[in-house]
Each structure stands twice: as C-alpha cells, then as structure tokens.
C-alpha cells in the first residue's frame, strides 16, 4: 500500500446505518430507543441498589442477578448512545479506533452475559439437585472466583480482535449494516484475506457462547430429571417456577445470537434488514426485559417496599415544609402588626414592659 493510502487508512471512518428507507421518520424512530435506554438504565440500577442495601438479598441467586444487571447496563451504555446519535442527529460517522473500542466492549460484555447465564443455571442446578450442599458450594469466595475467571476468559478471548482488525487494509465500501460496530461486519470491510479473523471468530463463539449454551442445556436436563422424581405435583410446579425467569433470559439472549451468527456467515444482501432487526433484538431487548422478567417474589417485595417508603418519606418532608412555611408566615404577620403600632402606643408599651429603675430614697 502506498503512503497516500496509508494516510487514508489512518484517518478512515466507518458509516453506521439506520433503518433503510425510513430517513424521514428517524425522529419518531428515536422515541422507542430513548424509552428503551431509560427503562434499561433505571430498571437495572434499581435492582443493583435494592440488592446492595438489603442484607437479606446477599445470596448467590441475587449476586448472579446483580452481575447480569451490571452487564446489561454496560451493553446499554455502549450501544444505545450511538444508535440515538444516528436517529436524532444523523451522526453516522465513527472513527476506526472508536469502532474497534466499541466492538471490543460489545463482544466482551456479550460473552460475559453468556457466562453469567451459565452461573445462574449452575445456581438453579445446585439448589434443586443438591440443596443440602447449596450453602457450602456457593460461598461468596467461590462466587467471586467464578465471576473473575469468566471475566478473564472474556478478556483473553476478545482482546486480540481489535489488533487483528488493525492489521487489515480497508479499501472497500465503509458502510456498515448495523448502528454499531461488530467484528463480523468490520472484517468484511477489509480488502485483505480475512480467513484468520473468520476462523478466530468462529472458535471464540464456539468456546464461549457454544460451550455455555451446551452446559446450560445439560444442567436443565438434570434439573428436569430431578423435578420429575418429585411425587407432589404442587412441589414439582413450584420448583419449575423458580427457573422460568432464567429460561426467559436464556432464550432472549441465545436465540438472536444464533440467528445473527447464521445470517452473518450465510446470509446475502437481501438479509440486510433481517440482520439489523436481529442486531437490535440481540443487544437492546435483553437489558430491557431482564429487569421485568425477574420472578423473585422476595426481590419484588423489597422493590415495592422501598418505593412505598420513599413516597411516604417524601410526602412527610413536603408536609413538614408546608407546616414550617405556615409558622413562618404567622410569625411574619405578627411582627408586621407590631410594626404598625403608633408611636404613643409603643411608648406606653415600652413603659410597661421595660424594667423601671428603683426610685431614690
């Protein structure tokens, strides 16, 4: 590559895409994305706040739920501002290094969310299949080590991607088919051989998302086998009910992930809209739905109790401020009435109120 082309590469930008053919209504399209952003941030923040302040929620299940909330917050913060920039300000350009940084965090957080879903499945497996050893197996130290190990796994797997992409020469069309940067799209913009990146991406997906989904499936096979041995139907349904929210989160995450991977590898130009819809669903819907599908009655009660307590305290503060304003106004009116007393009356009052000097003998 010539020096001129190298200069163009260093200052290259990618163009992100919105929904094609709907440029006239981009402002209206931004409204649901704004609502999704606000609900995701507020919902996951409330879950983290309640779990932190309530000591009764410092249990393995809620610790894993807080990990999931942190991951969903990260995905919302990394992706939705870029999407809103397209639909609100038509800001489509993104620099090469910013694109590499964004795809690094998107893939890292996605891999870690897959790991958290696996940890939650392991939690359900121990609680149902081996409940007597639940407290001894899932101690806070073991939970911290598992979370750190899976985070390091994600960093080690995703860290080479930006550097592999940086070695490429980008001389093709720089328009991406998504509203954010992902590895599968960026590597197709290169005019070099992308076989290494394609194989590496496939291997990382199989070793992380593929392995996690397989282990989740096996854990639920064991859970179902244990539950079917329960004689009481009521207890059987009650036990299965504790897994419904986790199953919903698993399906919301893995189904669009698999569909997006298939369309990227085997799709053609006609599947552009399908790729965009799956991409939005994959990164935006789980952070939005996960706080809603929380089926823990204990956590819901704590959230409602905290909300009621906040409403009562705010009403008491406003009422106290209203009473204080009333007292202040009464004192003000009393003082102003004294100021309107005539001078002779004031002189007479002072004579009666001030202490008199003793008369000389």
TrEMBL record:
Broad class of the protein's primary localization: membrane
Family the UniProt entry places it in: Belongs to the G-protein coupled receptor 1 family.
Every G-protein coupled receptors family 1 profile domain range: 43-294
Membrane topology: Multi-pass membrane protein
PROSITE patterns hit by this protein: G_PROTEIN_RECEP_F1_1 (PS00237), G_PROTEIN_RECEP_F1_2 (PS50262)
Any one GO biological process: cellular response to lipid
Keyword annotations of the record: Cell membrane, G-protein coupled receptor, Membrane, Olfaction, Receptor, Sensory transduction, Transducer, Transmembrane, Transmembrane helix
Listed CDD domains: 7tmA_OR51-like (cd15222)
Residue stretches in coiled coil: none
GO-annotated cellular components: plasma membrane
Protein name: Olfactory receptor
One Pfam family linked to the record: 7tm_4
Xref: PANTHER family: OLFACTORY RECEPTOR 56B1-RELATED (PTHR26450), OLFACTORY RECEPTOR FAMILY 51 SUBFAMILY AF MEMBER 1 (PTHR26450:SF29)
InterPro entries assigned to the protein according to its UniProt record, in alphabetical order: GPCR_Rhodpsn, GPCR_Rhodpsn_7TM, Olfact_rcpt, OR51/52/56-like
One Gene Ontology molecular-function label: olfactory receptor activity
Transmembrane segment boundaries: 25-51, 63-88, 100-122, 142-165, 199-224, 236-254, 274-294
Location in the cell: Cell membrane; Membrane
Organism in which the protein naturally occurs: Gopherus agassizii
């Amino acid at each position: 590559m010539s020096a001129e082309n190298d200069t163009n590469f260093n200052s290259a930008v990618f163009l992100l895409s919105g929904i094609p053919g709907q440029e006239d209504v981009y402002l209206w399209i931004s409204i649901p994305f704004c609502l999704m952003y606000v609900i995701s941030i507020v919902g996951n923040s409330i879950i983290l706040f309640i779990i932190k302040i309530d000591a009764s929620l410092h249990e393995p299940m809620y610790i894993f739920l807080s990990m999931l909330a942190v991951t969903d917050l990260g995905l919302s913060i990394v992706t939705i501002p870029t999407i809103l920039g397209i639909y609100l300000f038509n800001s489509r350009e993104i620099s090469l290094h910013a694109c590499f940084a964004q795809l690094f965090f998107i893939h890292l957080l996605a891999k870690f969310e897959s790991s958290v879903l696996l940890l939650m499945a392991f939690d359900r497996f121990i609680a149902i299949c081996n409940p007597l050893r639940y407290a001894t197996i899932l101690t806070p130290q073991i939970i911290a080590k598992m979370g750190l190990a899976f985070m390091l796994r994600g960093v080690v797997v995703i860290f080479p991607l930006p550097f592999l992409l940086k070695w490429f020469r980008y001389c093709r069309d720089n328009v991406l088919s998504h509203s954010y940067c992902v590895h599968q799209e960026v590597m197709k913009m290169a005019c070099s051989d992308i076989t290494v990146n394609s194989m590496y991406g496939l291997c990382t997906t199989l070793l992380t998302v593929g392995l996690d989904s397989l282990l989740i499936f096996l854990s639920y096979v064991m859970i179902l086998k244990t539950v079917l041995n329960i004689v009481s139907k009521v207890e059987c349904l009650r036990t299965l009910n504790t897994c419904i929210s986790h199953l919903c989160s698993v399906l919301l995450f893995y189904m669009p992930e698999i569909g997006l991977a298939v369309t990227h590898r085997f799709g053609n130009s006609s599947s552009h809209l399908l790729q965009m819809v799956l991409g939005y669903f994959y990164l935006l819907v789980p952070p939005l739905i996960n706080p809603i599908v929380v089926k823990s009655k204990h956590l819901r009660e704590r959230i409602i109790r905290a909300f009621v307590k906040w409403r009562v305290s705010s009403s008491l503060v406003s009422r106290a401020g209203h009473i204080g304003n009333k007292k202040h106004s009464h004192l003000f009116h009393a003082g102003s009435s004294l100021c309107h007393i005539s001078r002779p009356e004031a002189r007479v009052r002072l004579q009666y109120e001030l202490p008199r000097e003793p008369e000389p003998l």
